[in-house]
Amino acid sequence: MSDFYQAWLDQSKKNNETVNEGPRVARGKDLKWTRTRQDYKAALMIAPETGFPTGGSLLMKAEIPAGWHTGKHIHGEEAIYIEKGEGFMLLDDQRYDFHKGTVLHIPHRSPHQLVNTGKDSVVYIAGLAWPLESFIKMGPMEQVEDAGENNPSVIAKAPREESQNWPTDGRRISMHLEQHEKSDESKHGATYFLMGRSGKQNGFKATAVAISSIFVDLAHTKSHSHAHPEAYLYALEGSGYSEIGGKRYDWVQGDAVHVPPGMMHHQHFNPYDTDMKELRFEFGVRYWMVDQWRGYVTVDKHMKATTHMID
Ligand SMILES: [Fe+2]
Ligand SMILES: [Fe+2]
Fold it and tell me: Ligand 1 centroid to 131 CA: how many Å?
């Protein structure tokens, strides 16, 4: 006899299988680019639509050609990393300049738009919690204006940047590459804390989605082995591999690694001669789980950073 309760038990089993068998690496070379109302060119990396068992989050890559801007839209929180190019973001009609390496925090329901003012394309990586917001029937998404070509007279009239902080409550909106500070406290070769909940937050106040840090894993080293709820790593520089749930996943620059929801043990390895650098995204729902998980600890097998590969 099937009843609603049996359906829950079946669903639980299915959730487990989906997480255990899901893909772990979104390959930069296999991206499926699409034109959307918001972006001239966008591709989902880690997302429910690309088959990843996410906990209501997603990672997207997008390109703004020279002389173009994105659409203007309103939705939940977003975290953006500028991989390439220069320009500015209009957020609540305030201007925030960006260039390669800038991280941007978009507060919940702030209208925003990115404008490319350079000679080359702007490429950006964005994290959102849209699938979760949609599931709980919150965080509506509204399109105010579509992507298009810049009008030079409109660009000339754009306001100047007044601050890197948000006038509403003083939180930080942008942080440039040259403002990233190396931390002494690291379980990797080096860590630059950006806007996450653990480590220095630099004035950011991210709730739903954060670009928490940049990790540097030195040549011929491995990170600590540990377990925690969902996180993403985007490979900024170098190549390496990750062991997740006992399986090996190789990746190269431009790929994104999915540490799935659940408490799957994982560890990152750099067996090569060049350092690797990863951008880490984490989502607020993780802390909703961690705070109620009895006896939760980030389980560490090897606490020592930069353990030599042959250890
Ligand atoms: Fe957005
Ligand atoms: Fe981790």
Answer: 14
Domains of the chain: 22-175 (2.60.120.10), 181-308 (2.60.120.10)
Q: Which ligand is nearest to the CA of 147?
A: 1
Residue 88's nearest CA partner among 153, 176, 214, 210 is 176
State the distance from the centre of ligand 1 to the C-alpha of 128, rounded, in angstroms.
8
Distance 235 CA to ligand 2 centre (A): 14
Amino acid at 35: R
pLDDT tens for the 311 residues of the chain, in order: 699 999 999 999 999 999 999 999 999 999 999 999 999 999 999 999 999 999 999 999 999 999 999 999 999 999 999 999 999 999 999 999 999 999 999 999 999 999 999 999 999 999 999 999 999 998 799 999 999 999 998 888 899 999 999 999 999 999 999 999 888 776 777 899 999 888 889 999 999 999 999 999 889 998 888 888 999 999 999 999 999 999 999 999 999 999 999 889 999 999 999 999 999 999 999 999 888 887 777 665 544 444 454 33
Provide the H-helix boundaries in the chain: 4-21, 130-135, 152-156, 285-290
193 and 183 Cβ atoms separated by less than 8 Å: yes
Ligand 2 geometric centre to CA of 227 (Å): 6
pTM value surpassing 0.90: yes
CA of 230 to the centre of ligand 2 (A): 8
